[in-house]
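Morning run. Coffee first, then this:
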Amino acid sequence: MRDMNSRRENNSLDERIGKLLLEREVEDFIAREAAMLDEWRLDEWLGLFTDDGRYMVPSTDIPGGDPKETLGIINDDMARLRGRVERLKSRHAHREFPWSRTRRFITNVRIKEMTEEEIQVNASFLVYRIRSGQVDPLIGGYIYTLKRMDGALKIAVRTAVLDLEALRPHGTLSIIL
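And here it is:
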């Protein structure tokens, strides 16, 4: 009996350690992603996505809307996302040339659900966009669907849900949240 209890305690401890290690890995992944975006390493950031990845920013009036039925601010598959990155890196992206400075603060990273294929993660964000002497705070939450591929985490879906009621004062979203 004592041996069986000891094995249960070890399994429970192993599960808790495994969960803590995964939580730390996810937090580190999201922090590295934020640094890539703040440093405008957009090609490197694209490499974090699966081949069929998506980047979405729902509308501010229906943030929980189904992207198949509700118009959003951004709903990019990988082809569109690559195009977005190319435009942002170009001198022809007048809204972002020279590039805005950004600073991302990510907090409350939580693993919400896990299957063998996917990890659902939620996090809160505050992104400061600094341009032409103006500082614009963008506040909201991230919803990630992550997959493990070749031993590394990859983004299958990245949704940035804004808490703002409108995109004021600049009226547009020209950076990647």
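The mean pLDDT is 87. Good start to the day.
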